[in-house]
Each structure stands twice: as C-alpha cells, then as structure tokens.
Amino acid sequence: MTESERPLSDDPRDEPADEDRVAERAHLLPEEISAGSADPIGQAEQILAESDDRTDDPERTQQEYSQTNESDAGNSR
C-alpha cells in the first residue's frame, strides 16, 4: 500500500470521524462538478489523505506535492 492509499487514520476509533470527513469532502465543488468525477468518494479520500500527509510532514511533502507557500503567493491580502 502506498502512502496515498493508506487509511486516513490508523486508529480504528477515528473511523467514524474519517468517514464524516470523506462524506463532507465528497460533495463536489462547482469546478469539480463542471470537470466531472466518476468517483467522488475515492477523490475525497485521496484529497484528504494528501492533505493529512502535508499537515503531518510539511517539509517532506513540499517537494512531493504541488502547493503554494505564503511567501510564494505574494501575500495579496
């Protein structure tokens, strides 16, 4: 199993919370609706797993995932 295929949480007590997160994220955003999605649940699981991975180890994942740092974004607030 690759890291992106790993469960959102290895703790079985977290399973209902993970299911809730996936169900909430599976509601497609307008741009996702227009692009289409054959598997919103699978898409949500992948997005959340990658998000958790970036949160858990931001230095390592900064090189692996496409993301924007605040310093790179121009801080246009």
TrEMBL record:
<feature type="compositionally biased region" description="Polar residues">
    <location>
        <begin position="63"/>
        <end position="77"/>
    </location>
</feature>
<protein>
    <submittedName>
        <fullName>Uncharacterized protein</fullName>
    </submittedName>
</protein>
<feature type="region of interest" description="Disordered">
    <location>
        <begin position="1"/>
        <end position="77"/>
    </location>
</feature>
<feature type="compositionally biased region" description="Basic and acidic residues">
    <location>
        <begin position="1"/>
        <end position="30"/>
    </location>
</feature>
